[in-house]
């Protein structure tokens, strides 16, 4: 401590503050901090020296100490704007966008006239892809200050709202044999040991939105769209299924695709088909289901516990949180695009969000994981067969950890009449059951390449 600060008496409280401000003005952070600390010691009950000490600590990147001081201020005055704003800055420095947003929103609630803080709120919302909420903030600023150039410029740069562009779900689809007999062909897929990739009832509903046509035969259901024909088996024996494939392949024009079918049959392969667009899938037979129920790994249980301790909870996807679910999906797609990977099924995902309430009649269930008043993960699933549980899509932010296993365990609770099977892509690491099964010695035997048979 400088000699002046060390020798000061409690009566020099204001002088110490002034000396701190002078030191700050000449860029001497160390001296400023000493003067403000001395002022704080002289009048411990005063709020200003706490705030000034906290400011210097934050500027010196001593974030934990600064945060503790700001929180102590809020204990006595929960709406102290300066403390709230700086806690928001600390959260931003740590990369915690959601927490920063919450602090800035609390500061604006305490002082609605702070346009600068409203702009900070909009900035955090944009980082979270919550474009609709950011738009509302900018429009609110312009309603009060039509000449605010900053708000107008940022509003103009916001992405336009997206829509799937597909026709909405029709109740008449429920009368189609595809859905009326879904449990039957789902059981057959399970008996054949073929993953239900691309054939959950939700995916088929999306196919109908794209204009697929349906043909029902005694031993299968065919869904045709352009040069692709999906085959839904109404038989459960491999020899029968094999003959159906031969017959339907012979009936299709050259260059057509028939699927989804396995690259190699589980029993007595007799065909030599070319499989294209192959996907490696896990295959689960009913005898393997019992050991998977409730399975988990220690590390993932720990992640889920930490997630719950942080305040995470699940709730259905609905009008109140739909924009934030879409924002979570946008962040996932943006991450894939940034890494140079192709993004598929964007329109299908949007269509599902647009039709969730109607799709519930098909047994579709949905949940969102909420943390810090934001959606950090979501999942939509539909049942098929006797025990298959095929999720159509589910995404979560990379941070915090534990979102994927938490989603999986919570989604299983929505299908109490069925055992939970995770039939997701082996490379997506979707949840607890998948991880347990993957690390067993016979995991390679439970994988199958599945794709389109090229005629």
Give structural notes.
The chain is of the alpha+beta class. It folds into three domains: 155 residues, Tetratricopeptide repeat domain (Serine Threonine Protein Phosphatase 5, Tetratricopeptide repeat, Alpha Horseshoe), CATH 1.25.40.10; 104 residues, no CATH class; 162 residues, Gcn5-related N-acetyltransferase (GNAT) (Aminopeptidase). It has 20 helices and ten strands. The strands form two sheets. Strands 1-2-3-4-10-5 form a six-stranded mixed sheet, sandwiched between helices. A hairpin with a 3-residue loop joins strand 8 and strand 9. Helix 3 runs antiparallel to helix 4. About 3% of the residues have low confidence.
Number of contiguous helices = 20
Tell me the name of the CATH homologous superfamily of the largest domain: Gcn5-related N-acetyltransferase (GNAT)
| Class based on secondary structure composition and strand pairing | alpha+beta
Spatial extent as radius of gyration: 29 Å
Label the CATH architecture of the largest domain: 3-Layer(aba) Sandwich
Summarize the SSE layout with pairings.
Layout: H1 3-7, H2 13-25, H3 29-42, H4 48-59, H5 63-76, H6 81-93, H7 97-110, H8 115-127, H9 131-144, H10 149-157, H11 177-180, H12 182-192, H13 201-209, E1 213-216, E2 220-225, E3 228-233, H14 238-251, E4 257-262, E5 274-282, H15 298-309, E6 313-315, H16 322-338, H17 346-354, H18 356-359, E7 365-371, E8 374-384, E9 388-396, H19 403-412, H20 432-438, E10 447-454
Parallel strand pairs: 3-4
Antiparallel strand pairs: 1-2, 2-3, 4-10, 5-10, 6-7, 7-8, 8-9
């Amino acid at each position: 401590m400088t000699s002046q600060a060390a020798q000061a008496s409690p009566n020099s409280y204001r002088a110490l503050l002034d000396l701190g401000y002078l030191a700050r003005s000449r860029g001497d952070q160390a001296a400023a901090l000493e003067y403000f600390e001395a002022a704080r010691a002289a009048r411990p009950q005063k709020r200003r020296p706490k705030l000034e000490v906290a400011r210097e600590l934050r500027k010196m990147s001593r974030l934990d100490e600064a945060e503790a001081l700001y929180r102590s201020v809020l204990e006595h005055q929960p709406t102290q704007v300066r403390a709230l704003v700086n806690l928001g800055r600390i959260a931003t420095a740590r990369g915690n966008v959601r927490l920063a947003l919450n602090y800035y929103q609390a500061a604006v609630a305490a002082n609605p006239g702070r346009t600068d803080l409203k702009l900070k709120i909009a900035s955090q919302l944009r980082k979270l892809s919550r474009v609709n909420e950011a738009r509302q903030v900018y429009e609110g600023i312009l309603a009060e200050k039509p000449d605010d150039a900053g708000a107008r410029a940022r509003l103009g740069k916001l992405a336009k709202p997206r829509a799937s562009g597909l026709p909405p779900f029709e109740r008449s689809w429920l009368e189609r044999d595809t859905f009326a007999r879904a449990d039957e062909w789902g059981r057959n897929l399970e008996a054949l040991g073929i993953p239900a990739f691309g054939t959950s009832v939700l995916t088929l509903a999306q196919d109908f939105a794209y204009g697929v046509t349906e043909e029902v035969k005694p031993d299968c259901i065919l869904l045709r769209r352009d040069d692709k024909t999906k085959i839904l088996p109404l038989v459960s024996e491999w020899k029968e299924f094999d003959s159906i494939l031969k017959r339907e392949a012979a009936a299709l024009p050259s260059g057509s695709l028939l699927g989804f079918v396995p690259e190699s049959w589980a029993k007595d392969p007799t065909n030599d088909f070319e499989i294209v667009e192959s996907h490696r899938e896990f295959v689960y037979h009913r005898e393997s289901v019992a050991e998977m129920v409730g399975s988990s790994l220690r590390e993932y249980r720990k992640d889920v516990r930490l997630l719950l301790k942080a305040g995470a909870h699940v709730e259905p996807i609905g009008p109140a949180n739909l924009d934030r679910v879409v924002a979570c999906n946008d962040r996932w797609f943006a991450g894939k695009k940034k890494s140079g990977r192709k993004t598929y099924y964007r329109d299908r995902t949007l269509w599902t969000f647009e039709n969730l309430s109607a799709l519930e009649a098909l047994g579709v269930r949905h949940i969102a994981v909420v943390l810090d008043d934001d959606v950090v993960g979501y999942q939509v699933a539909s049942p098929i067969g006797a025990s298959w549980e095929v999720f159509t899509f589910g995404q979560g932010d990379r941070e915090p950890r534990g979102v994927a296993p938490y989603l999986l365990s919570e989604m299983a609770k929505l299908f109490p009449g069925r055992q939970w099977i995770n039939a997701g892509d082996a490379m997506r690491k979707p949840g607890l059951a998948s991880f347990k099964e993957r690390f067993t010695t016979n995991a390679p035997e439970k994988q199958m390449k599945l794709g389109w048979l090229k005629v």
